[in-house]
Amino acid sequence: MSGIGGVQQDIGHLQFVLRDFRLMLGGNPVGNNAEIISALNGRNPRKVVIKLWDGHRLNDEGELVDPWGTPYFFHQISSSEMEIRCAGPDRIMWNSDDLNFR
């Protein structure tokens, strides 16, 4: 799925992946996008791998990207809450077409 529907689908999958990580390790993964994906792939204190969903997209830097190819922005609000921001179709972060999820 592409566009905004693809973002909503990604976020739905991410909510389950992050929930599973919290259940296994006691809190959210921390760091930037690539560091979070690395933690999900087993680079965490318990070496637990939380499988990403089929059809996820990574760029050459190992970052999870939206349907337009822009890396998602992760902000750890607390050990149990994560904000995820998508730059939207214009691919420019921090303007009016961004999509923001918690």
UniProtKB/TrEMBL annotation:
<feature type="domain" description="Type II secretion system protein GspG C-terminal">
    <location>
        <begin position="8"/>
        <end position="91"/>
    </location>
</feature>
<dbReference type="Pfam" id="PF08334">
    <property type="entry name" value="T2SSG"/>
</dbReference>
<dbReference type="InterPro" id="IPR045584">
    <property type="entry name" value="Pilin-like"/>
</dbReference>
<protein>
    <submittedName>
        <fullName>Type II secretion system protein GspG</fullName>
    </submittedName>
</protein>
<dbReference type="InterPro" id="IPR013545">
    <property type="entry name" value="T2SS_protein-GspG_C"/>
</dbReference>
